[in-house]
Write the structure tokens for this entry.
Amino acid sequence: MTRSVVGRLIAKDLYLYRWLIAGTILAGVTSIGVAARGGASGTIGGILLVTSVITLGVFLSIHALLSERQSKALLFVLSLPISPMQYAVAKIAASLLAFLIPWTALTGLIVGLELTYGSAGDLAFTGILMGFLLANFCILIAVGMVTGSEFWAVVGILVTNTSVPVFMSIALPALRRAGEGQGAAWSPAVAATLGAEAAVIALSLGIAFYVQARRHDHV
């Protein structure tokens, strides 16, 4: 019974986000098309792509994880036969799926184009950038689930969004230079960065689940 309720909650959220998911995919594909022209268009397209993914993450972190608290719709959820942990599973799973569907589609499209027209170096840095965006979103999920506070959610959004241009303008060029110095795009620094991103993703989701599971009341 409870598994059925959790599944229905996930399906309900995904249904509500269907146009957001479709819109993000459309915006991302359009951005990739602009970026493929190269030159100034390449820069503009890249910025638009990153912006569309960030916007999706911001909306999900604010609306999906906090709106039920603010609108009191969570009172209805509390009447359902589910535990705090099952509620956390439903909310986190729905948010992750809503983010991962366009994220995976756009990442797959970029990788396909790079395999056809690019190089191994392009794949390495695409993986790092898209992994960074996913890690940022998982941090926002953790902040929303742990604090339940709109204030801290906004702080998290400001910090993670500010980190994106810094990462793109400082960290990525440094990693590229390190790879060139070693004669390979997939340098130890690249591998370490990907590993760090995976660790942040796992830690953020783990904290969100752990804190929620220990709560006796999820309002």
Observations:
- The longest helix spans residues 84-117.
- The chain has eight helices and no strands.
- The two ends are 22 Å apart (CA to CA).
